[in-house]
Design brief:
The chain has 13 helices and 14 strands. It is of the alpha/beta class. The chain folds into two domains: 140 residues, Rossmann fold (3-Layer(aba) Sandwich); 154 residues, 3-Layer(aba) Sandwich (Rossmann fold), CATH 3.40.50.2000.
């Protein structure tokens, strides 16, 4: 039987989308074809999985119109589309459920924000444990099964993106065994800054290991590297799919609470996640190769972080 389309509204942050990948893979393994709606960066991020990803427009009217178009296309593939539960809402907002209702979709989602009347089925899953298990649990409820969450995410990279990542590393003469640092953190957690205050001091110590230290700043972040992290090899403008291929080659990724940390863990890179106010039980990167360093209400010290680095990375011959 051909796969049955399932329209899925993604979350709005890179980390959330990555943590939702196992849920989407589970749905696909049960004969459903995820048809995804999300932010403009989502197609590049998820290109390796092969799912169709549509950029979500602005405004309730346009969002509902887009979903109606996708519903029409799904009916052409699956005549029984309208007779079954046919959509999944990963966000918890009222508006995301309303868009589905206005498009005539029979959506399943979290029973939050008084959305019960808008959804075909509202699931009372506590959205407060780890985000990955919350998304996984919602997918299991959709399928009416009960399975444990997988130990790792295993996000795929397209061959073209991996080739571009390898070519970029070769172009800049970055040697194997390099370390990626992510000293950026968008937004706040419970009104508190998520950026490790000692990150600049840490990178200075990290450079003494003799390894190439790499950063891939996003829009507006170039100055952070040149100003605060001299000696770090900045590679700006790397698209998310290529970034995943680059992280896959890293010996270690050291990061704040930010999307690239989740991307690194998802492609199997060793990750040292340095956290402050962020709750690791809810938002830590997912995978057996992830180490979390957190001593809140104080931030970790440079010495503590370097001890973790040395435990994960053997010192190259001749390094200090």
């Amino acid at each position: 039987m051909p796969p049955r389309p399932l329209i899925v509204r993604l979350r709005n942050w890179v980390g959330d989308v990555i943590l939702g990948v196992p849920a989407l893979q589970l749905l696909q393994s049960h004969g459903l074809q995820p048809v995804l709606v999300g932010k403009g960066w989502a197609p590049a991020l998820l290109a390796g999985e092969g799912w169709p990803v549509h950029k979500r427009p602005e405004g309730l009217r346009d969002c509902a119109a887009q979903l109606r178009t996708l519903r029409h296309e799904a009916r052409a593939i699956d005549p029984g589309f309208d007779r079954r539960e046919n959509a999944l809402v990963l966000p918890t907002s009222f508006s995301s459920a309303l868009e589905m209702r206005l498009a005539g979709l029979k959506a399943v989602g979290y029973a939050q924000e008084a959305r019960g009347l808008l959804l075909k089925r509202a699931e009372a899953i506590t959205y407060g444990g780890h985000a990955l298990t919350s998304y996984w649990g919602l997918a299991c409820r959709f399928l009416r099964i009960d399975l444990p969450a997988p130990p790792r995410i295993e996000l795929k990279t397209t061959p073209a993106d991996q080739a571009s990542a390898d070519a970029l590393l070769a172009q800049h003469g970055i040697a194997p065994g390099f370390v990626v640092v992510c000293p950026f953190a968008g937004g706040l957690f419970e009104k508190q800054d998520k950026t490790w205050p000692a990150f600049a001091d840490f990178t200075r110590e990290l450079l003494k290991t003799g390894r190439d230290i790499v950063a891939c700043p996003g829009p507006g972040e170039d100055e952070i590297i040149t100003r605060d992290h001299p000696g770090v090899r900045g590679l700006p403008g790397v698209k998310l799919g290529v970034y995943g291929g680059l992280l896959r080659r890293a010996a270690l990724v050291v990061s704040n609470d930010t999307g690239p940390a989740h991307l690194a863990a998802a492609v199997g890179a060793p990750v040292l996640s340095v956290l402050g106010p962020t709750k690791p039980e809810q938002w830590a990167p997912w995978g057996p190769q992830v180490r979390v360093l957190r001593h809140w209400p104080r931030w970790p010290t440079v010495a503590e972080a370097m001890a973790e680095v040395r435990a994960q990375l053997p010192q190259p011959a001749g390094s200090g």
